[in-house]
Amino acid sequence: MSNFKGSQLNLKMKKEKVLKRIKFETNLEIFTQETKISATEKLPKRAKEMFKESSSLARPKAMWVECNIKARGGNWIKVSDQTLKSKVLSETLDKGTKVLYPYIATSGKELYDWSTQFKKETDKYWAHVIQSVALKVAVEALKNDLLRNINFPKIANMSPGRIEDWPIEEQSKLFDIFSSILHFCVTQSL
Hints:
Blueprint: H1 6-9, E1 13-19, H2 28-35, H3 45-57, E2 61-73, E3 76-79, E4 82-85, H4 87-92, E5 99-100, E6 103-106, H5 109-115, H6 121-149, H7 171-179
Antiparallel strand pairs: 1-2, 2-3, 2-5, 2-6, 3-4
């Protein structure tokens, strides 16, 4: 984990944190919930085997930064050198809000690499579910860390592509905010 001052980064950021040692200690119950299998059904043996194998490999990671909001309009905000265009995002932030905490979370390259070995569709499905669980674990660890480090009672979680007026193409602007801090390996597909 690292802590840098904004002046070292030339991005006028106060804090940033990389979470590289997130424990993937989820249990089969969470995995089963993610698969949408009913309580009366049993998880297939193969899924349990894959889950056990992946648990020793998984290295979910996350990162957040504190960015000053430089300017704002009715349907945009400017953080770092990026203008994020979303009326919903702009309106969700109180007018007095002066900082934003963008983040990146990943299930990790280790799980991605592991998942590419499977050829059977059912194995691919289980691998995808495992990656989804690892990503949720990373986001939860990130939220907990962020709440410990900032003085806000709650966090609004918004993402390009998940808000009606914030298209997925805006995601690249968030990656640009992080690009001079850390190089992330982003894959085209999971």
